[in-house]
C-alpha cells in the first residue's frame, strides 16, 4: 500500500473522503445545527477539537490497549473531550451553548470520530493521525459551512446575523425547518456525486 | 407533562428522526426494505426503553446527588455501549434466528445518536421516572414509524427513475425532508 | 500478566485519568457557568423593570419565580415574574415586569422558546410583539387583539397584539401571563407578596 504524502493525507478529508458528503457520517449534527452559520461553525469547531485531541490520545496509547477493550477506551477518551468542549462552551460562550442544546454532548456519538479512531489513529503514528484528523475536520467544517450558509441565506436572508438579502427577498422559511435541512443536504449530496462522476469521466 | 402528551409528542410532533435529527445513520443505511427497517426499529425501541430506565437511575441516584453532572456524557455512553453488548448476548442466547435477522444492526445501535440523544433529552427535560420510561418507549416508536415509512417509500422509489447523482442517500434525504414537512402538520396537536 | 487483568487495569486507569481530568475541568468552569445562568435572568429582569438594581427572590415554585426589584436607593422599583409554560412547539420561558403597585405590566421579554422560526419565533421580536406589552393592565385577564393592530396606541390597556400568522404562539404567551397574574393576585391575597401602597391610596 503506497504511503500517502502529508499533503494527500490531509486533503483526502476535504473531498475524496469528505466525512459528510462522501462517507455519509456525522449527519445528525450536520442537519440539526446548520440553521445559521454561527451555530454550524461552532459545532464544526467543537467537533474538530474533539477529533484532533481524541486522535492524538488514541494514537499515543494505541500499543497499550488490548484489542478487546479498544472500543470502550476510545469511547471514554472521546466522551471526555466532548465533556470538556461542552463545559467550555457553557462557561465562555453561553448563548451559543444554549443554541446548540443537546447537540454538543451528541458529538460523542458522531460516527466520524469513533470511525477515525478505529480506522486510522489506532494504526498510525501520532503525526499522521494528527494530519488525518485535521483533514477530516476541515472536510467537516467545509460541509457544515456550505450547508449552513445556504440555509441561513435562503431561510433568513442573513449571513452571520447580518442582513444580506434586501427587503425584496422573502425568506424561504422551510430552509430553517428540519425539512429544509434534509432537502438541502440531499441536493448537495447529489451535486457532490455529479461533480465526482463528471471528473471521473473527463479523466 | 402528562403521559399521553409525552407519547404523542415523541411519536408525531417532535419525532426523533424528523424533528430532532437523531438516528439518521441507521435511518439512511437500514431503510431500504420494510422488514429490516421494522426489525431495526424494534431493536432500537427495546434498547431505548431500557436506556431510559438505566440512565434515569444513574442520573438521579448517583450523578445529581453527588454533583457529578459533568459525568453525564461519559456515563451515558458507557451505559449504552454496555447495554447494547448485553442485549446482543441476550438475543443470541434466547433467539438465534432473531439474532441472525438483526445481525450487524445491533452494534450499530451504540453509535446511534438516537439512544444517546434520548438519555440527554430526558435528563434535560428533568422527567420523572415514569415520564422517562414513557419517553424512551415513545421515542423508539417514533423512530420505528419514521424508518418504516421511509423504507416503504424507498421500496417504491427503487422502481422509479431517479437521476443518477441522487440515487441512494440523496433522494432518501429529500424524501425525508418532505416527510418532515408532512409531520409539521402535527404541530399544535397538543394545544 | 493475564489478558483479563491487563484489560481491567487499562480500563480502570483510563477511567480514573479521565474522571480526574473532567473533575478538574468541572471545578474550573462551574463558577462561570453559574454566573452565566444568573446573568441571563438578570438581563431579562433589566429589560422589563426600570431601575432594577437589586433582585430579591420572594416566591418560587415549579415554573414560576417572582422577584422583588429595588432601585439603587433601596426603594421598591417593581416586580419581575419569570414563568414557564407550554407553547406551540415546546416550552416557553418568559419574564414580565410589574410596577410597584402590582397593577401594571411594565414589559415582557422571552428567555427561552422553540417556536416556529420566522413565525412563532417572532414573540422574541420587539417590533412584532414585545413593544405591545408596555403599560398593560395587570388586574384582570388580558385578551388578544386580532387582527393585529399597527401601533401600541390602538390597543386598550387589557389588550395584547397578536402576531400575524403566529396567532397560536401569541396566544400561548398570553395564557402563560394570565395564569401567572392569577397566581400573583392569589399570593397578594394570601399576604405572601407585599406591595407598596401608592401615594394617595
The major beta sheet of chain B can be summarized as: none
Distance between the termini of chain B: 13 Å
Query: What is the share of helical residues of chain B?
Result: over 70%
| Series of secondary-structure elements of chain A, N-terminal to C-terminal | HHHHHHHEEH
Cα Rg of chain A:
18 Å
Number of domains of chain B: 1
DSSP strand content of chain A: under 5%
Question: Which series of helices and strands of chain B comes N to C?
Answer: HHHHHHHHH
Assembly state: heterotrimer
Helical amount among residues of chain A, as a percent range?
A: 55-70%
Supply database-style keywords.
heterotrimer, A: 203 residues, mainly alpha, 8 helices, globular, C: 201 residues, alpha+beta, 6-stranded antiparallel beta sheet, two-stranded parallel ribbon, disordered C terminus
Report on this structure:
The complex is a heterotrimer of chains A (203), B (191) and C (201). With 203 residues, chain A is mostly helical. Chain A has a domain at 6-145. Chain A is built from eight helices and two strands, in the order αααααααββα. Chain A has helices spanning 6-11, 27-32, 37-61, 70-92, 94-100, 111-121, 126-156, 178-202, and strands spanning 158-159, 162-163. A two-stranded antiparallel ribbon of chain A has the order 1-2. In chain A, a hairpin with a 2-residue loop joins β1 and β2 (162-163). The model of chain A has no long low-confidence stretch (mean pLDDT 85). Chain B has one domain (3-183). Chain B contains nine helices and no strands. Chain B has helices at residues 3-13, 24-29, 34-63, 72-94, 96-102, 105-110, 113-124, 129-157, 169-184. In chain B, α3 (34-63) packs parallel to α7 and α7 (113-124) packs antiparallel against α8. The mean pLDDT of chain B is 81. Chain C is 34% helix and 25% strand. Chain C is built from two helices and eight strands. Chain C has helices at residues 3-48, 167-189; strands spanning 54-61, 64-70, 76-86, 91-98, 104-112, 136-137, 143-145, 159-161. Chain C has a six-stranded antiparallel β-sheet with strand order 1-2-3-4-5-6. A two-stranded parallel sheet of chain C has the order 7-8. In chain C, β3 (76-86) and β4 form a beta hairpin. The longest helix of chain C has 46 residues, at 3-48. Classes of the chains: A mainly alpha (203), B mainly alpha (191), C alpha+beta (201). Chains in contact: A-B, A-C, B-C.
Amino acid at each position: 500500500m503506497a504511503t500517502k504524502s502529508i499533503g494527500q493525507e490531509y486533503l483526502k478529508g476535504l473531498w475524496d473522503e469528505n466525512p459528510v458528503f462522501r462517507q455519509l457520517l456525522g449527519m445528525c449534527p450536520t442537519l440539526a445545527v446548520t440553521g445559521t452559520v454561527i451555530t454550524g461553525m461552532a459545532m464544526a469547531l467543537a467537533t474538530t477539537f474533539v477529533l484532533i485531541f481524541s486522535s492524538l490520545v488514541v494514537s499515543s496509547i494505541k500499543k497499550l490497549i488490548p484489542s478487546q477493550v479498544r472500543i470502550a477506551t476510545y469511547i471514554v477518551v472521546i466522551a471526555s473531550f466532548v465533556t470538556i468542549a461542552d463545559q467550555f462552551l457553557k462557561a465562555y460562550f453561553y448563548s451559543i451553548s444554549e443554541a446548540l442544546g443537546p447537540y454538543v454532548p451528541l458529538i460523542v456519538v458522531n460516527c466520524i470520530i469513533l470511525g477515525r479512531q478505529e480506522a486510522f489513529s489506532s494504526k498510525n503514528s501520532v503525526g499522521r493521525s494528527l494530519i488525518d484528523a485535521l483533514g477530516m475536520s476541515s472536510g467537516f467544517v467545509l460541509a457544515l459551512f456550505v450547508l449552513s450558509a445556504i440555509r441561513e441565506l435562503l431561510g433568513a436572508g442573513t449571513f452571520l446575523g447580518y442582513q444580506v438579502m434586501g427587503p425584496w427577498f422573502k425568506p424561504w422559511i422551510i430552509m430553517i425547518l428540519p425539512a429544509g435541512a434534509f432537502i438541502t443536504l440531499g441536493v448537495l449530496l447529489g451535486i457532490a456525486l455529479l461533480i465526482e462522476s463528471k471528473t471521473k469521466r473527463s479523466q | 407533562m402528562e403521559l399521553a402528551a409525552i407519547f404523542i409528542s415523541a411519536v408525531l410532533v417532535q419525532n426523533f428522526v424528523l424533528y430532532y435529527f437523531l438516528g439518521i445513520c441507521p435511518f439512511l443505511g437500514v431503510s431500504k426494505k420494510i422488514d429490516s427497517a421494522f426489525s431495526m426499529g424494534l431493536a432500537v425501541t427495546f434498547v431505548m426503553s431500557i436506556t431510559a430506565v438505566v440512565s434515569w437511575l444513574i442520573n438521579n441516584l448517583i450523578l445529581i446527588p453527588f454533583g457529578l453532572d459533568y459525568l453525564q456524557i461519559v456515563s451515558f455512553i458507557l451505559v449504552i455501549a454496555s447495554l447494547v453488548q448485553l442485549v446482543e448476548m441476550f438475543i443470541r442466547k434466547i433467539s438465534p434466528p432473531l439474532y441472525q435477522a438483526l445481525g450487524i444492526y445491533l452494534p450499530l445501535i451504540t453509535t446511534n445518536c438516537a439512544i444517546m440523544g434520548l438519555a440527554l433529552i430526558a435528563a434535560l427535560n428533568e422527567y420523572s421516572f415514569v415520564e422517562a420510561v414513557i419517553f424512551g418507549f415513545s421515542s423508539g416508536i417514533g423512530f420505528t414509524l419514521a424508518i418504516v415509512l421511509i423504507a416503504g417509500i424507498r421500496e417504491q422509489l427503487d422502481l422509479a427513475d431517479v437521476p443518477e447523482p441522487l440515487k441512494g442517500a440523496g433522494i432518501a434525504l429529500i424524501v425525508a425532508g418532505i416527510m418532515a414537512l408532512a409531520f409539521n402538520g402535527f404541530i399544535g396537536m397538543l394545544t | 500478566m493475564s489478558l483479563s487483568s491487563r484489560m481491567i487495569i487499562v480500563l480502570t486507569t483510563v477511567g480514573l485519568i479521565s474522571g480526574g481530568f473532567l473533575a478538574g475541568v468541572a471545578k474550573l468552569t462551574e463558577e462561570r457557568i453559574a454566573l452565566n445562568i444568573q446573568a441571563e435572568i438578570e438581563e431579562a429582569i433589566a429589560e422589563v423593570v426600570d431601575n432594577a438594581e437589586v433582585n430579591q427572590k420572594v416566591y418560587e415554585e415549579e415554573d414560576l419565580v417572582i422577584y422583588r426589584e429595588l432601585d439603587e436607593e433601596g426603594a421598591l422599583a417593581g416586580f419581575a415574574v419569570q414563568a414557564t409554560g407550554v407553547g406551540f412547539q415546546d416550552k416557553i420561558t418568559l419574564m414580565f415586569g410589574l410596577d410597584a403597585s402590582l397593577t401594571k405590566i411594565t414589559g415582557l421579554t422571552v428567555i427561552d422558546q422553540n417556536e416556529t422560526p420566522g413565525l412563532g419565533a417572532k414573540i422574541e421580536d420587539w417590533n412584532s410583539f414585545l413593544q405591545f406589552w408596555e403599560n398593560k393592565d395587570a388586574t384582570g385577564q388580558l385578551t388578544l387583539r386580532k387582527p393585529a393592530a399597527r401601533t401600541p396606541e390602538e390597543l386598550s390597556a387589557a389588550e395584547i397584539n397578536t402576531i400575524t400568522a403566529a396567532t397560536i404562539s401569541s396566544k400561548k404567551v398570553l395564557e402563560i401571563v394570565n395564569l401567572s397574574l392569577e397566581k400573583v393576585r392569589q399570593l397578594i391575597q394570601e399576604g405572601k407578596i407585599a406591595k407598596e401602597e401608592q401615594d394617595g391610596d
